[in-house]
Specification:
Helices cover about 60% and strands about 10% of the residues. The strands form 7 sheets. A 6-stranded antiparallel beta sheet has the order 2-1-4-5-6-7. Keywords: ATP-binding, Chromosome, Coiled coil, DNA damage, DNA recombination, DNA repair, Nucleotide-binding, Nucleus.
Length: about 1250
Amino acid sequence: MPPRRKRPARKDPDRPPESNRARFSLEASPTPTPNANNDEDDEMEVVETQPQEPLATDADADAFSPNADPDSDSDLSDSENVAPMTLNNINPVGKPPEAGVIIKVYVENFMCHKKMSVDLCSNINFINGQNGSGKSAVLAAIQICLGAGARRTNRASSLSSLINHNGKATHAKLRVKLLNKGSDAFQHEVYGDYVTVERVIDKNGGSDYKLLDEKDRKKSTKKADLDMMLDLFNIQVDNPVAVLDQEESKKFLTGKPEDKYAFFCKATELERISRQYSSTNDSIEDLEIQKEAMIKSLRPQKVIVDKLEAEWNECLKLESIEEKISNNKIFGAFALVNEVEEKEQAHYKVRDKLKAEYEKLAGKVKDHEAKKPSAGDSETREEKAKVLSEEAEKAVESKRNLEEELRSKKKPVKKMENELSGLKRELKKAEKNCANAKTALKKARDDYLANKGSSEGEKSKMIEKQKELEEELEANKEKAVQYQEKLNSIQDSYEEKNDRVTDREVQIKQTYAQMKEQEGLLKMLSKESGAGSLAMFGSKAPELVAKINHGHRKKIFKGNVFGPIGSFLQIKQGKEKWAKLAEVAIGNMALGSFVCDNNADVAILRRMRKETQCRSQELPIHYQRPSARYDINVARAEGVEICLDVLNITEDLIHNFLCDSARIERKALAPTKEISQTNLIVTSGGRKSVRGGDIQECYFYPQGDHWQLKNGYLSLRSNLQKSNEFNRTLIGKDTAAALVDAKQQLEYFQAEYKEKKADIADLKSEATDEKKSWNAYNKSSKTLLTEQSKIKDELHDLQEKLEDQAQDNEEEDHSHLQTEVDETEVEVEDLTKAIEEKETAINDEAPEIEAVEAKLDEEAARNQKILDELDTVMKEIEESQGLMEAWEAKLEKGNKKLASYLVDLEEAEKKVVESSEKLAGMIKVGKTLLWKKGRIDKSNEKKRKRLMEEPPRTQAEEDEDEMSQSQSQSQSQSQTQQSQDDDDDDDDNDDMEATEPTDAELDEIERPRIMKTSSYFRAKQTKHEEELEKERKKRRISEADTKAVWNKFSRAREGLASVKRGIDTVDGNLKKMKHDLKIRKRKWKTFRKHIAYMTNQVFGEMMNKKGSSGEVQFDHTEKMLQLTVQKDAHEASQTSDVKALSGGERSFTTLSLLLALGENLETPFRVMDEFDVFLDAVSRKIALDTLVEVASSMIHRQFIFITPQDISRLTPSPTLKIIKMKAPDRSGNQTTLD
């Protein structure tokens, strides 16, 4: 069928039409009936609607061309063969369900059901049950709820008959829930994704409609809204192809060919369109009659217009005298211009002098502005300071690493030194044992010598020498041990002092950085203290606040004005530790903002801000709509604060502003990053989210950095503020107390720095002395070792000599004592050798340790150099700031002086402007009079055009003027000349106001040269006005008579023109309507041929599924439709009498024809009731398969099939739903479904 076009308002003009809603607009456009007596403003307007073209083959292109000749009848013959049009694919695969699909049907006290609810699938639905189970009640509920009458259901003659009265119900309630998604949704912003239509039927047969949204809330009770929605969704419950009940199905094929053709036209809406075309023909005939009547009324009106025009021309003869009056008015006006122009020149001289002085001072101020200290140098120094700070931190870190490396390298050396100390203790013990053994040997030898009585002198001397050498060697060894212990003690002391020096250097650097930071803070606070605490929010804040306070006293503000915002904020008691983070979270821009609750105050405040010469980003001004304080409810986590919770905000306007602009209810504060992430962030499936879902950002100490969570990913943001800026607190701050604290803190840091510098100098001096002492002892120790070696060599030689002599002399055996001495000496030598090896190993490690120590010294020197350089840069920054402040002070002084000059100059300029405006106004008056005179001088036609701008007076107004004139004639004729002058002046003003020239026209008029005074021309004007009045009295024509004649003439002429325009409008509309109707009829016939062709094609395909064939024959001239059916392959089975078919064959044929017609139907759902009632098993199987196949190919459409037959062979799926109705309960009411 030709579907209805969707409402244009719901379509996107830039979007191509959707394939599933491609439609033909064949309906005739509305036909307005023009009124012949309408004024020009009420002229009928006819808009020709261009029909939307369907896609067609080349053979049909000419037939559907909008430029086709409407007089051509080449395509109007029904006997021509028509090629099928190629339609858009209206059933694309995978398209989602259309808007209008039925989701649910609910009935209450309806037919055989007390309560029933049926949920439907969006594609294929089979409602199955025994006769009397209430299947058809579902169909009837859909029809009734969507606007059909009771007779359409073929179940009752009135709505009240459909109420279930078994339970003494007084009404029935029906509900149909429709899908409302996609581009064709009906008022989606109102109803949402679903629209529910509710119809309540009372016992008297009355009914009410309701449209409910997706939450079952009532949105409309108008039947017009329901019709609009059904039209938008293209739901046609009265169309037998869309909704086929049992009765329609039974009588469809049994009717006459004329009835079948009528069914075809009704199903495809060709009948409705044809009726509209007939209605349009009637409208065209009515317009023809109206046009003839309007032409007849022209002749008498033309006679009246000619008579009134002659009377008007007589009145124009007085224009000559009026022209003289106009000339004197013009010359008098320009004479006054000359007099005012002389006064203007004096004002110009005063203005020019002040302007020269102002420009000179402005030049000096500009030169001073050009000498502004370079902000780039300051920024460069600050960047350099930042870089140096980073380098210092890196140097400290590098030094720590070197110290750690030194400790790691010294650790094994310490171990070896401990082992060396143990060896030395063992050596000392061994040397003691050796000494004891030697003492015993000496005593034995002494005893031997004493017993022997005498010995050889040489042997005695050698023994004596041996004794002396052994004593000397022993003393030397004891002294060497003492020296070694002393060296170890000195070395330990030196290393301990060196470590203390390193620690002191780190402490000094930290103290120095803290001292410099505190100096910057003190300087900032000193500046803020001098300018007041408001200066913390901007240098111009105190001045702007002073202006606001002055404005409040003058009551120039209409509402509340607050600012700076930061001055109205306080930290809650016990929450002071969060102050710095809260400031970072809010932002300096918001803290320094001003907020108003109306736009008028915003404009005033911006003007004040401009007067204070604020920088572009300084002290911004915002508008906040006044409302109650926002009710904030966000999830909170343990150990984490919300920015809003730490602030004490007394003003609702400020509270709402910070929630809207700074989002303080969405920002969290935490002691550390780790705590914030532990308490707030939840990880699931590799993606992160915030516990509770309310927090968007979290700020944390120590430097005010923060993180954001977006799309499941965490991003960290560093705080770009410098450390001293971060340490500054703006919220709820006492500047004086902060200044005292800052001074005390600075004094503490300075004293600590001085003390640590002195301490490190003492430590370095002590370490140097220790190093010198160690070198001296080490030198002495080496000398002792050399002497020990010599003594050992001498003892060895002497021992050999004694042994040689002992062999020659018989002596007492002291070999065991000598063996003991030798063993102890070997032990001493082994220990001495082990000590030397340990010392060698320690000495081998010394170069690496010394290299690390050298690097450490180098890094410490580099660190100190960076600190010195950083100190220098900070001093340069302070000096640069001082220069900038001096420059700004001088510039401010110059600007104030310049402002003073500007006030005087503006006053002088104001006088010049006032005199110039006065002069320009007078010149404009004169030129306007001259322009009007030019219009009068052109011709009488020009004067008529000027008067035409005044609306014609009505007959009632003229009658009232005649009555007033009659009353004035009965009064005294004695009136003063002054009164006459006033009346004349008023008339002149009316003439001037009748029409005014444009500025471009005035510029083209040259100013005349006038040599006489204005009083001369006023006297001449008075004289001519008296003359004009005499002529009017002589001819008995007053100004009111002239206007009355003009009003009558203009009304008559306008009436005549209006009738002519009406005739032209009617004639144009007739031509357009005839042309449009002819094109539409031609397209209607082409479309009818296409539908007939497609119906025949699809009908044959459907019949083939059963092994039969069929043809649909259309006779559009006689309006008949014949069906030819061939049951098998034999032509003998072919028949054109449908009654000759069996019941099952007729049912299948009916089903095939309905499916064929349905191919052209674009309704969101179709319903068939008992379509298979007469089908045999084989035909039913084919029919079911065909229905499922066709419905499955249109997944976006909904099909509802009602049958009492067995459908167990069908398998439910997501797109196919089977609804089983309970067997009828003869004793009660059916209430539920299986």
